[in-house]
Amino acid sequence: LHRMGSHPHKEDARHDLALVKRGGAWHNPHYADEVLKSVAEVISKAGGNVKTYIEMPAGTEKCTACHSGILDAEIKLELSEFDHSAHIAERKITCTDCHIDNLPEMTGHGRRLPLKSSCRDCHHSANVAGDKLCSPCHIPARRLFSGALPGLEPQPSPMFAADMVCRDCHYQSKGYRPPDNDLCLDCHDAEIVRDLEFKRGVLVNLILKSSSSDLPTRLVEQDKGRAVHNPDLAKKILSR
Fold first, then answer.
1. What Rg value do the Cα atoms of the chain yield, rounded?
2. Does the global pTM surpass 0.70?
3. How far is 195 from 202, CA to CA, in rounded Å?
């Protein structure tokens, strides 16, 4: 506030901001939200810099009373990416669309709902129509398919090199389920399909015997497609 110009309500804004800081926004999040909107308006009219205000969707107030900084929190997941701000602020998804809605003192409070009833309802819908490599989910499959694994020379799958994308084999109309051999035979002959099944068995055995815990190995282990997405690279990694 000290860097802004003059405004008839400058001191009122200073007082209101101090009230929220000292009183704690969590004690009355809805009221605190209205106060901060008013303070931001005064600062803006006086020529000060105001951080863009994010309108939270209805129904999030009871959660943000405690989790007030969730939009800026970094969710560090090794094999996937997640951005709370993109879900809540941009797509207006409420907390209880993805998390268990019960009292804080109850078991399971705030735990993530099963993927089938939360993430997949959106990410396996028309919302992903423009996403060729199904990002940011399915990172193990995506990275193995593209051949971009940490610490290794790039070795893309022949399908990736031929500009194929996930939806060329995984159809939305079938719930993006793994394709059966009949689909493979649309492009490949029976010998290649049989060879692929053999390679899949080899890779499963290598995974069971593997003692490595580095990131490329874990990516191969967590990619359910394994032999299909990039068999030669997968075997190379597991045979080191």
1. 25
2. no
3. 11
